[in-house]
Task: inverse folding
């Protein structure tokens, strides 16, 4: 009998496993430190749900490297989405947790998948309502292309070229019981 | 002379104790003979153009229905209803005689208004209209109207219907004074201070947050009026009884031999205050729709003769009065075109016998106002309704003849369809249509 | 869990899951009101009409602030019942408003059921901001949010609602809401102000205030309309206050950590003494704050998704 890990069907392909994710995050952590010449003024904010957990993992990796724990929180972009009133269901609200004033800070915004760029736009607008950061940098685990807005990630765990109809899913231990990145063939 | 035969229908005439298949022969607008079909040896054939034959086989043939409680709204409120549309609605409902209430504008408190209504009725659909005159001038509950003049003009009863007579002294005088003229005093029995609600007081009103009127509002007034009837020896008719308490009071009064009659409406017999849920203003009326215990007591009252009549309280209101906030909406519903069907629903459900139902809609109301109608009797005016009990219809606003469409039955399917109404031998409703498919 | 409704007309029709969803969403919105920039663009371009047939500064302002913090355009229409043009039906009014293409109408009306009628006439969302003695759903939701915030739960709590139950929409909505989330509710008031069949809503009823207060976790005092005295619902304010007013002595019958709610505005010294109203367990001001959050949540859940065709 065939078994597929994490309930993955033959239509799905594992693009990153647990170890690959950890390696990518470790590299991104190094890049963040290198580019910002340390951790001073850094605030890590993840976009719930999985972006937040990735932010916490990044915080831990940075602490392992630098011995400093940058303030970490969550920025929920739901109320700033541009598709409210268009989607059939109202998206549930997530956690908004800005741990300190972001004025003059360098914000590392973390998301799982960068696709159209619309969520990033919404999250940036949300952040602006909380203050005036020095800069915002974007870290994503996966960049799958197909941008609809002029947005580019500063740190990318893995580029996964996809077709528009394909699905890319990030599963994390914290929310899904297993850590992996899978692509799903379009089903129609 | 025109002749008409209604052939082979099931004739139910409680006044004559008839229930069976009969042929009814009509000459010159009057009933010439009523013969049992199986022993009737007359050959009924179309021999001359002067003879009409109505094949009523499989249909119900009853005396023309009599309604003791109609609001025709003319003069003054012709945008709601007028004598012509009101009587057309009556004809469509199988009614051949209706009593119209005095709360017009101007109020029917003098002979000239009465004569105006009767003149309009003469130009109407052929339904016989009998006005009730106002009991007090302008329905103000202060001074009596001129009963003699009203009677001479054509009124058969007096009533301030719509406005309860709060002044017990005035009610006493009306009951006394009316004796001279043999006119019934029709009472809208509700204690005004207790009846400030917009629906029945009880758990439905509590849930809906609407102000309730308790049964006691009606019970106390019915008790007062019965006491006054006993004191004066007047002829008291209690309009639209809605409570079990009032049924019991009438039962006691009749046992005592008092000259009391009473009516209930088809809606009070079949609907409860649950109909108000959803804030349907077509379930708002005065007295309000009550509880299941009350409807049950009313039906029992019809069965044992305590409530002798069924009357529609046909109360047309336009959208201006009904498409408004529940508190603001006017009271009342139309009923002429649905009355028989709604009552037949109780017969079909086994709660009333057909004979009791027809009695309460024909001969009993006639007796309540002292007129000799409501029977298929040799020599009497041929006022007859023919009903197809096997047909049903969905009540649609656009199909109603009444100008107003405030019916609680809109969209509902009702059994029994009136197919022909005849007054004085002349068909006033259901012309030319074949009675059967 | 999604709220799949066009309108919010009452708590009676809401399931426990729907109430919980609204409360959870409101908890998120509480944060928005604590920001320096108390505004999110969520309902940009949406129009909310506040249609108030009864004066109510508090509720109207709360809805208005909620709409504005969501970036909706809020228009207030105050109609005094006497100024309604004769001959214009509610249906006419509704169609006129609808022609202005609002996304939501918030309605307060002295006649019970008017929001239901309006909702049937218009295609946009309708929120009942209080209809006669029927329901006041957003008030009950904010009361539940306030209690949940302080007590951490609703389930298993004992709630006493004291005062004029007959004329109170707040009482009715709270009876439905608290019982649906698993609290037990007792209402208490003079027999003239306990409507027949109130138990059918799911509560217990008593004329004895002390009995209702015994071991209770939540005490909700209702505002007494002083003019009810003229209709003999109670003989004098003095006697009403003595029998059904809340003071520290009576409060001792409740649990030591009982919290006190009042929908406001309060009649100090009548239904509630000043020392209780201003005391440590009074949540009256928290209610006001939570009112905005709850109304933002309701707007979001009703207007935050495409209309089902």
Result:
């Amino acid at each position: 009998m065939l078994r597929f890990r994490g309930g993955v069907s033959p239509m799905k392909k594992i693009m990153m496993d647990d170890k690959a994710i950890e390696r990518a995050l470790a590299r991104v952590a190094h890049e963040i430190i290198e580019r910002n010449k340390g951790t001073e003024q850094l605030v890590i904010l993840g976009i719930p749900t999985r972006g937040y957990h990735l932010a916490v993992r990044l915080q831990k990796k940075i602490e392992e490297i630098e011995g400093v724990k940058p303030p970490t929180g969550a920025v929920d972009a739901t109320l700033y989405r541009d598709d409210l009133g268009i989607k059939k269901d109202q998206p549930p609200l997530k956690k908004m947790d800005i741990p300190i004033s972001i004025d003059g800070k360098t914000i590392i915004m973390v998301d799982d998948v960068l696709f159209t760029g619309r969520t990033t736009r919404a999250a940036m607008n949300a952040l602006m309502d909380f203050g005036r950061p020095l800069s915002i940098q974007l870290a994503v685990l996966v960049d799958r292309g197909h941008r609809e807005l002029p947005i580019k990630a500063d740190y990318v765990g893995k580029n996964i070229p996809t077709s528009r109809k394909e699905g890319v899913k990030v599963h994390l231990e914290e929310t899904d019981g297993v850590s992996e990145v899978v692509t799903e063939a379009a089903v129609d | 002379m025109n002749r008409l035969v209604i052939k082979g229908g099931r004739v139910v005439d409680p006044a004559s104790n008839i229930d069976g298949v009969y042929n009814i022969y009509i000459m010159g607008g009057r009933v010439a003979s009523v013969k049992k079909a199986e022993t009737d040896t007359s050959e009924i054939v179309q021999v001359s153009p002067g003879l009409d034959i109505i094949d009523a086989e499989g249909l119900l043939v009853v005396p023309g229905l009599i309604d003791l409680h109609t609001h025709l709204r003319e003069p003054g409120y012709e945008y709601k209803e007028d004598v012509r549309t009101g009587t057309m609605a009556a004809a469509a409902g199988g009614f051949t005689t209706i009593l119209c209430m005095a709360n017009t504008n101007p109020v029917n408190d003098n002979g000239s208004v009465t004569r105006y209504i009767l003149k309009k009725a003469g130009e109407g659909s052929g339904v016989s209209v009998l006005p009730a005159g106002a009991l007090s001038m302008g329905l103000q509950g202060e001074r009596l109207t001129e009963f003699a003049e009203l009677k001479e003009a054509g009124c058969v009863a007096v009533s301030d219907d719509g406005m309860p007579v709060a002044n017990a002294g005035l009610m006493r005088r009306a009951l006394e004074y009316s004796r001279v003229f043999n006119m019934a005093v029709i009472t809208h029995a509700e204690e005004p201070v207790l009846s400030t609600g917009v629906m029945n007081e009880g758990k439905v009103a509590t849930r809906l947050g609407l102000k309730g009127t308790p049964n006691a509002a009606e019970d106390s007034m019915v008790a007062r009026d019965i006491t006054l009837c006993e004191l004066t020896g007047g002829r008291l008719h209690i309009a639209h009884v809605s409570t079990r308490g009032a049924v019991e009071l009438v039962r006691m009064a009749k046992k005592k031999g008092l000259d009391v009659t009473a009516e209930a409406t088809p809606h009070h017999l079949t609907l409860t205050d649950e109909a108000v849920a959803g804030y349907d203003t077509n379930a708002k009326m005065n007295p309000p729709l009550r509880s299941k215990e009350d409807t049950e007591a009313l039906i029992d009252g019809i069965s044992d003769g305590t409530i002798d009549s069924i009357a529609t309280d046909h109360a047309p209101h336009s959208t201006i009065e009904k498409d408004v906030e529940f508190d603001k909406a006017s009271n009342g519903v139309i009923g002429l075109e649905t009355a028989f069907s709604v009552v037949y629903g109780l017969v079909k459900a086994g709660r009333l016998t057909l004979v009791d139902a027809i009695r309460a809609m024909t001969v009993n109301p006639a007796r309540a106002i002292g007129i000799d109608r409501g029977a298929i009797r040799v020599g009497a005016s041929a006022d007859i309704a023919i009903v197809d009990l096997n047909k049903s219809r969905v009540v649609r606003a656009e199909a109603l003849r009444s100008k107003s469409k405030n019916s609680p039955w809109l969209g509902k399917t009702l059994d029994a369809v009136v197919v022909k109404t005849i007054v004085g031998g002349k068909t006033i409703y259901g012309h030319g249509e074949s009675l059967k498919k | 869990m999604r709220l799949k409704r066009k309108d919010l007309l009452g708590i009676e029709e809401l399931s426990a899951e729907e109430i919980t969803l609204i409360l959870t969403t409101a908890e998120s919105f509480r944060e928005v009101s604590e920001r320096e920039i108390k505004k999110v663009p969520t309902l940009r371009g949406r129009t909310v009409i506040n249609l108030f047939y009864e004066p109510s500064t508090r509720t109207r302002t709360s809805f208005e602030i909620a709409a504005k913090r969501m970036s909706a355009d809020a228009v207030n229409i105050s109609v005094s019942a006497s100024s309604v043009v004769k001959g214009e039906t509610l249906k006419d009014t509704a169609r006129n408003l609808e022609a202005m293409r609002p996304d939501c109408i918030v309605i307060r009306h002295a006649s019970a059921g008017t929001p239901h009628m309006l909702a049937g006439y218009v295609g946009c969302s309708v929120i009942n901001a209080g209809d006669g003695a029927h329901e006041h759903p957003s008030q009950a939701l904010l009361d539940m949010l306030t209690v949940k915030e302080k007590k951490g739960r609703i389930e298993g709590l004992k709630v006493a609602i004291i005062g004029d139950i007959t004329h109170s929409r707040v009482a009715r909505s709270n009876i439905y809401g608290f019982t649906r989330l698993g609290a037990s509710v007792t209402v208490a008031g003079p027999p003239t102000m306990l409507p027949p069949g109130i138990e059918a809503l799911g509560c217990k009823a008593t004329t004895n205030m002390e009995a209702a207060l015994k071991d209770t976790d939540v005490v909700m005092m209702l505002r007494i309309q002083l003019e009810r005295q003229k209709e003999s619902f109670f003989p004098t304010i003095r006697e009403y206050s003595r029998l059904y007013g809340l003071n520290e002595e009576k409060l001792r019958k409740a649990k030591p950590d009982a919290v006190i709610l009042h929908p406001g505005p309060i009649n100090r010294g009548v239904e509630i003494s000043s020392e209780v109203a201003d005391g440590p367990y009074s949540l009256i001001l928290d209610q006001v704050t939570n009112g905005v959050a709850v109304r933002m949540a309701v707007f979001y859940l009703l207007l935050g998704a495409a209309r089902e065709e």
